[in-house]
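Narrative of accomplishments. A recurring question from our advisory board has been how the design workflow behaves on a single, concrete structure rather than in aggregate. To address it, we present the structure tokens for one chain from the evaluation set, followed by the sequence designed for it. No filtering or post-editing was applied between the two.
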């Protein structure tokens, strides 16, 4: 008996010290049937942090029953809330909502406690945010803050602050919202909060930064989250959630092999615990593979879709990469419709829509998508959105034959991408910048930008489709497409001949055939046609 008591004492001490491995081992030695309700809750907690999801669910349910038997409704409600959240994370909505309903009934008329705050978040804040009702979410978040103040629970107060910040962001009050997120996170950094609340604050903050494409903030909070996780003996779900966000940043910076490795590890860790993040991880794998030209990208997008993650706009961009500009155009148009009215969810789809529409020669579609993206960037004014909007506007201006107007816009976009460390996006914009310089007759600047873009593509191992990957439009031959692309880049007949190792006379004959096939009478018109149809050396 004394030995059991000693082991329990060690288990409790280890749990208080967040030494989940030791705590779980000592609780294992005692056995669940000998544990109090508080011990069962601690045992379940240790198992959760160690990633043992089925053990956690079994022990948390036992703790719930024990708390009820001991007439501790507040503690039972907290256990029920955790069970609801964990089941929802696994994609089991019926069980998740069932447990949350139990918690709600227990809390009716009960003295105020932290479980009330968690209940408001799960049943009011999050549904309001998903439904596009930020005002209702702000009201609910402020009630969480007020509750935390009344019961003197700093963690509940900060939960309310974080929820209000996310709601304000959705309402377009980005500066105010991000300030609240930062405020909550600074308080979390001092280590006085419980690890579950701290982890929740970290993950909600990083996810919000990613949603609004505030890439600098996202990077900083991801770094700090990894520092915090490194102090724990087990990281539970939070390690996987942070891993997804780190993989997203790897994709942005061109570290695609590392992004895929990180994301696949997240799938291994979270597929049984957080299906939504496992789905996002598969999407990241799809992006990393697409950008490297790996044909199995389609399979990764399928895995994301099977877990509830819309595979757009990646799948449409994959179609474009495969040479199906028309199909990609159709796919991305339906994706814009399907994503709904939320401007933040529409932004990455609009950015892809511009690229696809320009390649497909659908300039009206490109203009509309770029215009919407500009409005979103103006509304939210974050680093990533502003870079996307500038790149999209520059691409459309160039496609319209307005190289002089496109030049400063593309230069600004390049600068923004470079500042964010987005090497691939900077290279793509730099390739367009080279095209603008050539159109304006500045061959030296064009060559420098094109060389820089190509060097970046080579360094990253990026896929660049050969012009032979697509069927030429209007009956043009492959060689005629080569000639037309060089015309669009501002080359003379002599320069075209030197590039393609053919005579000036042969270049002239090709141009006569090209003009006839596409129905133009001048090099300027031919260049415009090439741009509209995505036929460019630097595309």
């Amino acid at each position: 008996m004394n030995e059991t008591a000693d082991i329990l004492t060690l288990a409790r001490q280890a749990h208080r010290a967040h030494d989940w491995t030791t705590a779980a081992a000592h609780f294992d030695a005692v056995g669940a049937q000998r544990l109090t309700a508080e011990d069962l809750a601690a045992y379940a907690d240790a198992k959760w942090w160690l990633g043992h999801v089925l053990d956690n669910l079994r022990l948390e349910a036992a703790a719930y029953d024990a708390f009820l038997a001991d007439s501790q409704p507040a503690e039972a409600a907290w256990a029920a809330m955790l069970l609801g959240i964990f089941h929802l994370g696994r994609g089991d909505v019926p069980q998740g909502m069932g447990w949350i309903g139990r918690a709600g009934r227990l809390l009716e008329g009960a003295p105020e406690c932290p479980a009330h705050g968690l209940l408001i978040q799960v049943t009011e804040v999050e549904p309001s945010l998903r439904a596009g009702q930020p005002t209702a979410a702000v009201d609910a978040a402020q009630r969480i803050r007020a509750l935390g103040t009344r019961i003197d629970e700093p963690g509940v107060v900060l939960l309310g602050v974080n929820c209000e910040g996310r709601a304000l962001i959705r309402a377009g009050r980005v500066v105010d919202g991000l300030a609240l997120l930062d405020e909550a996170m600074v308080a979390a950094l001092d280590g006085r909060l419980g690890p579950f609340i701290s982890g929740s604050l970290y993950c909600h903050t990083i996810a919000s930064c990613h949603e609004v494409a505030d890439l600098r903030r996202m990077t900083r909070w991801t770094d700090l989250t990894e520092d915090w996780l490194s102090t724990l003996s087990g990281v539970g779900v939070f390690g996987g959630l942070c891993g997804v966000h780190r993989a997203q940043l790897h994709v942005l910076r061109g570290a695609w092999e590392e992004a895929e490795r990180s994301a696949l590890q997240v799938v291994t860790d979270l597929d049984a615990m957080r299906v939504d993040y496992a789905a996002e991880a598969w999407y990241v794998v799809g992006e990393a593979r697409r950008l490297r030209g790996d044909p199995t990208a389609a399979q990764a997008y399928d895995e994301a879709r099977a877990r509830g993650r819309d595979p757009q706009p990646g799948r449409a961009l994959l179609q474009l990469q495969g040479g199906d500009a028309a199909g990609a155009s159709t796919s991305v148009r339906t994706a814009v419709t399907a994503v709904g009215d939320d401007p933040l969810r529409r932004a990455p789809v609009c950015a892809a829509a511009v690229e696809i529409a320009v390649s497909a020669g659908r300039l009206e579609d490109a203009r509309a998508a770029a215009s919407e993206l500009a409005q979103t960037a103006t509304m939210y004014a974050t680093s990533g959105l502003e870079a996307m909007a500038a790149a999209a506007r520059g691409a459309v201006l160039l496609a319209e034959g307005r190289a002089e107007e496109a030049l400063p816009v593309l230069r600004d976009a390049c600068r923004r991408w470079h500042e964010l460390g987005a090497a691939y996006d900077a290279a793509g914009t730099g390739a367009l910048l080279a095209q603008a310089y050539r159109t304006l007759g500045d061959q030296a600047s064009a060559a420098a930008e094109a060389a820089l873009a190509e060097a970046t593509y080579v360094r990253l191992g990026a896929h660049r489709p050969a012009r032979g990957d697509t069927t030429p439009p209007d009956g043009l031959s492959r060689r005629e497409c080569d000639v037309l692309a060089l015309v669009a880049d501002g080359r003379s007949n002599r320069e075209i001949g030197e590039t393609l190792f053919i005579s000036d006379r042969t270049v002239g004959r090709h141009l006569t055939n090209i003009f006839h096939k596409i129905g133009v009478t001048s090099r300027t018109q031919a260049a415009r046609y090439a741009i509209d149809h995505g036929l460019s050396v630097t595309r």
